[in-house]
Amino acid sequence: MHELRRDPITGRWVVVLRENGMGPGDFEVEKHEIKGGANCPFCPGREGMTPPEIDAHREGGTERDKPGWSTRIIPNKFPALGIEGELNKHGIGLYDMMNGVGAHEVIIETPDHTKQFADFSDHEIEKVVWAYKNRSVDLRGDKRFRYLLIFKNYGRSAGASLEHSHSQLIALPIVPKRVKEELIGSLKYFDYRGRCVFCDMITQEKQESLRIVAENDLFISFCPAVSRFAFESWILPKEHSADFSYIQADSVVALSNILGDTMRKIKKGLKDPSYNLIIHTAPIEERQRDDYHWHIEIMPKLANVAGFEWGSGFYINPISPEDAAKYLRGIKV
Fold this sequence. Notes:
ten-stranded antiparallel β-sheet; 15 strands; 6 helices; HIT family, subunit A
């Protein structure tokens, strides 16, 4: 019989197909064709095609906005929100409004046009994680911003408009609804039990050993028991921490290792699916929360969200998290 499972964080229900569900080879995977980057603005030598860089990791003192970088951060040429101006909050009747003020940055993860994130070495991933951290620390000083959203889209079906490997960071003047749901749910759990729900999840995953994908001394990667999507994977620090931007150097190394391991398993085991990767972290002014735990969510694009999901708020997962984790755990990379 299929199962209904309730998310202990948000209260959302998920339908898990326990019988006659799909196997790893049953999904239709979007094909990725790397066309060589003849006109790619993210490739070395074309730095003039992008806005001036905000920061970059460079070797040997190479010149700003010139080749010689290994990661490069630039303003998005077509930003969702603009950096200039004040919020000017106001209302018209029952509608609340404010100016579209924020920051929208692109982290170009590699100078190699053909190399994708799952192909990176752990050291190359480490440079990307440092870029995430450094930009987070810098942007959190702007009093107009309340939340920093770091995400990566891979593949057209996941929203990527350019094939050159990159991530994005958007500083928002409001806390997103999805994050608020987690914050409200985690606080409710903490008020009732006196413990962080994410820490309890880690404890239970380690006790049951059914949904773990990978693990090291500082981090755990697993398919959550109430996965919304097939092969959805989360990465959490084992030590409680609410704010990603305060990650320490030893944790950056450990995170890069487990993130690389997880992404390689997903690529190899699922034939290189498109995916969304999102860092969930506490709002800028709430870094000390005992009830919230920053984490990374990786969601392969293996099925479409349709009318039932939009109409009900339920998700249908065609493979159990236990089977998904067992399969990914067995992939040798």
